[in-house]
Amino acid sequence: MTSAEPAVTCRDVVRSYHLEGRDVPALRGVDLDLPRGSFTALMGPSGSGKSTLLRLLACVDRADTGSVTVDGTDVTPLSRRARVRLRRERIGFLFQSPADNLLEYLTVRQHLELGARLRGRPAGDPQIEEMLDRLGMADRAGHLPKQLSGGEQQRTAIGFAALGPPAVLVADEPTGQLDHGTVDSVLAAFAALTETGVAIVAATHDPAVARRADRVIRMRDGRVVNGVS
Ligand SMILES: Nc1ncnc2c1ncn2[C@@H]1O[C@H](COP(=O)(O)OP(=O)(O)OP(=O)(O)O)[C@@H](O)[C@H]1O
User: Fold this and answer.
1) How far is CA 33 from CA 69, 180, 229, in A?
2) Average pLDDT, stretch 91-117?
3) Which is nearest to 33 in space by CA: 205, 193, 227?
4) Measured in angstroms, how far is the CA atom of residue 222 from the centroid of ligand 1?
5) 195 domain-assigned
């Protein structure tokens, strides 16, 4: 594998849900590349398939047909155990609600220490201090989540998810519960992290996210409508 290879590729990915004896098509043949060190905004109307696609990229769900490759590994045929391992080592995930991303009894620094440990990094890893600086959180390192603003909480969660770095950081509406004033700091954190080589993909309805992204992928009715750029 070379670093020029995308962090993630999807080829002709199809996924349907089965509901009360009916098939509900969510993805109808998605092709997508996420280059390393890039920030991609995934946009599209409600129900267009964004969350479904993110769940496949994060290896918490599987495609019916087609292939999803993460960091050179085709994840579709992997066992549950192998997917759990790939997720821990190579994939970061960020939920919309800051509270869902954090443990209330750990400080900012302890979250980053835990993230480093889960990625197999050594104790006292210099990445932890670098990450605090990159996120603008060095002066908040000893604070618990309840002592932080929503934006600071979300930046802590980004740091936890991005240590390593993983190949891809998957974020579902990462600014959806933040007020305007703090959205910028979260977007600046994403932009700063692309320097580490991680591919960031964020599903969003927020035009501010799209403006800060390197690329915008639009979905409609389970398909990517503006192609691979
Ligand atoms: N668990 C489920 N069971 C049945 N149908 C589902 C399920 N999850 C999603 N769907 C359907 O799959 C399609 C795609 O949904 P998805 O949540 O991926 O869209 P989305 O673009 O993320 O929407 P939003 O912007 O509202 O989050 C929709 O038609 C939705 O109703």
Assistant:
1) 10, 30, 8
2) 94
3) 227
4) 9
5) yes
- Which residues surround ligand 1 with Cβ inside 6 Å? 17, 19, 24, 26, 44, 46-52
Ligand 1 pocket, mutate which of 13, 17, 97, 218 (most atoms under 8 A from CB): 17
Closest CA to 156 of 114, 212, 124, 196: 114
Rounded to whole angstroms, the Cα distance separating 196 from 82 reads 25
229 within domain boundaries? no
List, for residues 105-135, the tens digit of each pLDDT value. 999 999 999 999 999 998 889 999 999 999 9
pTM for the model stands at 0.93
Give the C-alpha separation, 104 to 90, whole Å: 25
- pLDDT band at 30; cut points 50, 70, 90: very high
204 C-alpha to ligand 1 centroid (Å): 14
Q: Among 14, 50, 209, 224, say which to mutate for ligand 1: greatest number of ligand atoms within 8 Å of CB.
A: 50
Note whether residue 1 is domain-resident: no
Number of domains in the chain: 1
**Atom 25 of ligand 1, nearest CA residue:** 46
CATH code of the domain covering residue 31 = 3.40.50.300
| CA atoms of 22 and 106, how far apart (whole Å) | 44
For ligand 1, the distance from its centroid to the CA atom of residue 196, given in whole angstroms, is: 32
- How confident is the model at residue 1, as a pLDDT? 46
